[in-house]
Amino acid sequence: MPPGAAAQHILQMGTGYIVSAALHAATTLGIADHLAAGSMTTADLAKAVGANEDALYRILRALAMVGIFAETGPRTFGLTPAATVLRSGVPGSVRELVTWLCDPFHFRVYAETLHSVKTGEPAGDRVVGMPVFEYLAKEPALSASFNNAMTAFSASLGHAVLEAYDFSGIGTVVDVAGGHGMLIASILQKCPGMQGILFDVDHVIAGARLGELGVKDRCRTASGDFFTAVPAGGDAYVLKHVIHDWDDDRAATILRNVRTALEGVPNGRVILVESVITPGNDPDFAKLLDLEMLVLPGGRERTAEDFRALFTRSGFHLTQIVPTTSPVSVIEARLSR
Description:
This protein is of the alpha/beta class. It has helices spanning 3-14, 16-28, 31-34, 42-49, 53-65, 81-84, 95-101, 104-110, 113-119, 123-128, 132-138, 140-164, 182-190, 202-205, 248-262, 285-295, 304-313, and strands at residues 40-41, 70-73, 76-78, 172-176, 195-200, 219-223, 236-240, 269-274, 316-323, 329-335.
């Protein structure tokens, strides 16, 4: 790579936070929804969203440079394929996820990344003075943003997970830290004879959408602390993007509690929906998500061998890793005898 191109590449990476800030502003204002019917001038957009016209133009011009929106005429913008998934309420929408990932809260935490690099400790704890999940419980607006993002992420992953993994034969599935219930609802919808238990902490369970999702008659809720115990009665325990929040010691505690709940259950299994880090230098979103885990909750993304070792120490044996068409895999383990 020529020196000039190398410098441009580094500068583009170094200013990534500027793009994130611009993306957060555009997403919060709902620009993509306003452009769903066609291109608009920034003057009309500014009136519609309550923004300064010139500032909005400069934000959209910068985002157009990286393929998010397109300037289709003088101070006039339309959607690009990338921008279409910033609309709300459409299949594949990432609006809620982007709102969470680009929230100013993240900027505060990532400003302390060097602390994590030097100590191995979460920068989030340093910024807010307590573990991040405790902080979320005290901040309703931020907690809602996080839970909405996880619900939207579950919706986007659900089809891929259900297409890749065979959930048939499970009598009762328990979704551990299942949020508002999007994933377990998707599983129950595909498997009409199955029962479910949605398990999470009180303030999250309060927002469960089981009735809205049409499975309330086959799924009950339970609340508690998965570091203490998980509900008994399941044949399979699903944990989507839960284990990656924790270091190996705390992840093993959660899995041992699942193992206790599965004791004596024929063909009992634990099913993780997680990213699996690939070797080498190829692009892999899991490697960036791993830094999110480093600085926020103090967890980590894992390789296949990492999962195998974690299961072994928790009383399970890894049986299969099933890739999906999404960024996650389905990782299954059975009880060790």
